[in-house]
From TrEMBL:
Keywords: Cell inner membrane, Cell membrane, Membrane, Transmembrane, Transmembrane helix, Transport. The complex is composed of two ATP-binding proteins (LsrA), two transmembrane proteins (LsrC and LsrD) and a solute-binding protein (LsrB). This is Autoinducer 2 import system permease protein LsrC. Part of the ABC transporter complex LsrABCD involved in autoinducer 2 (AI-2) import. Probably responsible for the translocation of the substrate across the membrane. InterPro entries: ABC_transp_permease (IPR001851). It is a multi-pass membrane protein. Its main location: membrane. It is found in: Cell membrane. The chain crosses the membrane at residues 12-35, 41-59, 66-83, 89-115, 122-144, 164-182, 212-235, 241-260, 267-286, 292-310.
């Protein structure tokens, strides 16, 4: 129990902070604690959570995917245009197309970073501009509004199954898959090993280029899926979709304890980081905080999280997969 509390100290503190925040906001605005408000909160944070889970896998390799929002915008615009011109195409087919298209865009990042060994921040900064520009090229700068989209296309994300929206179910599925990848797959463990010590990872035989290609392709797949969900959720597609949203995604990871230096991070932390941002983004308008202050408050929270992470790294150093190493030692 003591070890659990020590290992999960950060997550426990963040969870308590979120509970305290929700309580304080509820005192100021009781409507925030209603079931409808909580339902909106969970639905609104679903896309952020899905993207943050994919971003976490990238960051633990000492990488970053700045193109994730532009990939979302491009795939969202493409499926919106496809639906506009061919409204008979089933939604599930469009979902598949958005995932494949996103994977292709992520694969480009992965090849440039894994095979040509280019810096992730430079590669994804470049593709961020390219993908955003292609969104403008394919759309001609025009909007695709709700009148241009089919009813089934718009309704799917907010369709309810068992009282919960499809968006939330997809976020839960992504959460389960991410937790399984990190804890039970060789692929997940090798991502942490690469981020913790790339040279050692190479010496023990980890195929770093293949792993990097895989993780950036996964990030693209998730962004592609969220591209459709975003456009359908808000019933509009335009060139500025999710502009700057990559910073929110990275912030959710950092607040949740994912180390920008790589090699450390948990799925639970990312969930809490996303929930924390979701609470702030949903609560501030309810308590009538100015949009300008909302940005300032969110930015301050991110800075504090980075500061806490930096101090944590200095005190304890990076530690990855402690349970696996301990298990191996015990067996030996």
């Amino acid at each position: 129990m003591t070890n659990f509390i020590h290992q999960r100290k950060r997550e426990l503190i963040l969870a308590l902070l979120i509970a305290l925040l929700i309580g304080l906001i509820g005192v100021r605005a009781p409507i925030f604690l209603t079931l409808k408000s909580m339902d909106n909160l969970v639905t609104d944070m679903s896309i952020l959570l899905m993207l943050a889970l994919a971003q976490m896998l990238v960051i633990v390799t000492r990488g970053i995917d700045l193109s994730i929002a532009s990939t979302l915008a491009l795939t969202g615009m493409m499926v919106a245009l496809l639906n506009h011109h061919h409204p008979d195409i089933p939604v599930l087919v469009l979902l598949g197309i958005s995932i494949v298209l996103g994977a292709a865009l992520g694969l480009i990042n992965g090849v440039l970073i894994g095979v040509f060994r280019l810096p992730p921040i430079v590669v994804t900064l470049g593709t961020m501009s390219v993908y955003r520009g292609l969104t403008f090229v394919f759309s001609g700068g025009a909007w695709v509004s709700s009148n241009d989209l089919s009813k089934s296309f718009i309704e799917f994300p907010l369709s309810r199954f068992g009282g919960v929206t499809a968006l939330v179910w997809l976020a839960l599925l992504s959460l389960i898959v991410a937790a399984w990848v990190v804890k039970y797959t060789r692929f997940g463990r090798e991502l942490f090993a690469i981020g913790n010590h790339p040279s050692a990872a190479r010496l023990v035989g980890i195929r770093i280029p293949a792993r990097l290609i895989g993780v950036y392709t996964l990030s693209g797949m998730m962004a592609g899926l969220c591209g459709y969900l975003w456009v359908a959720r808000y019933a509009v597609a335009f060139t500025e979709i999710a502009y700057g949203f990559e910073l929110n995604v990275i912030a959710a990871c950092v607040i949740g304890g994912v180390s920008i230096a790589g090699g450390a991070g948990t799925v639970v932390g990312v969930v809490l980081g996303s929930l924390f941002l979701g609470v702030i983004n949903n609560a501030l308008p309810i308590i009538q905080v100015s949009p300008f202050w909302q940005s300032a408050i969110t930015g301050t929270v991110i800075l504090v999280a980075v500061l806490v992470n930096a101090r944590g790294d200095k005190r304890g150093g990076k530690q990855i997969l402690p349970l696996h190493f301990r298990s191996a030692s015990a067996k030996g």
